[in-house]
Design a protein that fits this description.
single chain, 497 residues, alpha/beta, binds pyridoxal-5'-phosphate
Amino acid sequence: MELRYISTRGNAEELTAAEAIINGLAADGGLYVPTAIPQVTPEFLTSLTTLSYEERAAKILALFLTDYTAGELRNCLTRAYGDDKFDDPRCAPVECLTDTNILELWHGPTSAFKDMALQLLPQLLGTALRKKGEERTVLILVATSGDTGKAAMAGFADVPGTKIMVFYPHGGVSPVQEKQMLTQKGANVNVTAVRGNFDDAQNGVKEIFNDAAFSEELLRQDVKLSSANSINWGRLAPQIVYYFSAYADLLKAGKIQLGAEINFSVPTGNFGDILAAYYAKLMGLPIHKLICASNANNVLTDFLRTGLYDRKRPFFKTITPSMDILISSNLERLLYHITENAAQVKAWMEELRQTGRYQVDEGTLAKIQALFWADWTDDEGTKDMIRLAFARENYVPDTHTAVAWRVAENYRKETGDSRPMVVVSTASPYKFAPHVLAALGENDLPEDEAVMFDRLHKKSKLTIPRGLAALRNAPLLHNNLCQREEMAARVLAFAKK
Ligand SMILES: *Cc1c(COP(=O)(O)O)cnc(C)c1O
């Protein structure tokens, strides 16, 4: 049976998976959600234990992407996860430590968890375009504050039928992040620095998307605009896989019995990663609690505790920049599944847009709290956890992972729940080397990232990820800088190329 997708706001056409992936956002402003949740059996879980990551992904994604043939899916998956693209053949290995387990999602080409989805989305999109007979080039526009831009470029590089253009704030990303982007290969990629901050870059991209006349102009060049941000179903679905994969690995290692419930603690920003865990639970994966970990931008902690979502609050820049977010877009999907009431979801989102806040009713809150537990920690707590993890487990987590780890410990203390815990690890510690080294007491830090990588290597014994090690000698391939007002012109010039 074909699985269909509808908008969380109830006023868009029902689509197949491929169509939903091409559209990204629904026409009524909502997000696409599946009309039914596929269910798995205990035998299904057992069958995963002997499979590779790619094979696990093929079985799980086939349940959601029902209009892709098995051959199409396999091709997409091999291009995304095969060919040595990941620096660990298991792609998303679980490290079993004494007190906890770490699901490492950062073995992809850019050393951040965004690779898990952004390696596959371009393949799913490219395949969808061919299936639908789309002849125009799809131009992906991205505004990035760091990680997403590089991961998107790496995923879309040389994917037929697509071009990708990334804007980032000039002087507003870390030197490593900038170098990662400026060394990206691929005939269809462009990266441009914008004079201004991240909001300038982001608003510039939004204006381009909303400019109908500009879209017309692009269509005359046979170019169609699209986005790769985390509201696309093609980015969410791949993330469901690694929760199953982690469970299968724990089964295989004899850490749990079939059917035993486990907990996941997830460092959360846009609510995509943890929402994928929620889908896994709905499908029948034995998860007890989904633990939502935040930094000082703790809008989700407050929401999950009180039912009031209030984005009107101070914004903090933290040492976990990928979680510095005040609007968690994917929460809308959770609200839809919990209430099954699109009109209600639409009203809350409208309230959020107009007033910066909304309050869900008590029934909805109770249902959410039965599944989720939430807490947060500040930069000091994060660094303290890095130090403790190294002292106790001889393991060096990145800052984002440390937030989830700290919150997992708080959860255990407060609830006494001793079910097996999996801390979701979203970045290599090398990606945030200065903060990680500082937490470990290395304070006289050199400027040069190569020296820092060596220091961290000496301390942690972890191999320096291939992609980051290669930065040392990689040639800079891009050198574009523009004013905020020039962004549209730059897009047009690249579209015509
Ligand atoms: C994107 C990101 C997150 C947050 O994930 P969401 O899906 O947005 O909740 C956490 N950690 C790192 C390192 C990230 O890049």
